[in-house]
Amino acid sequence: MKIFAHRGASGQFPENSRLAFENAIKQEADGIELDVQFHQESGQFIVLHDQYLDEATSGTGDFNQYSLNELAKIRLGQGQTLLTLNEALACINGRVLVNIEVKSTETEPTKLTSICYALHASIQEAMVNYAFTEAHFIISSFNHSLLSFFHEVYPDYALA
Description:
The protein is an alpha/beta fold. Helices cover 32% and strands 22% of the residues. It is built from 5 helices and 9 strands, in the order βαββαβββαβαβαβ. β4 (75-77) and β5 (80-81) form a beta hairpin. The longest helix has 21 residues, at 109-129. It is globular and about 40 Å long.
């Protein structure tokens, strides 16, 4: 059995934050589940559960109305800021498994293609720059179209 820290050690620290990830690793979790949203303007993923910032952050409204620089200034609590997926993976650095839950309802093929290619690029960058292998990653989503497309193009990753 593997123990995954849901959004990091989110019972004690702001969910999906650097502090939550570091403490999940200190608490010897086998893996970390984190949520990502695709940021349209930058083409990057933001580690964030909800599309709207109002509940878990100091921001308001849809995260896509902000630039990447503006998002970096938004607070989660305990001095934590929003992370890009690349920043989160740098923090984790292959020390535990990572379940990347893609939060998307997108079904339009061209947009699904962009999301999946961007996700693969982030994972590839992490494998080049940090201590990750494909076996470290699980890609999950409630968007079955996204998972199906991702699996068709990148069949070697575990899905959930």
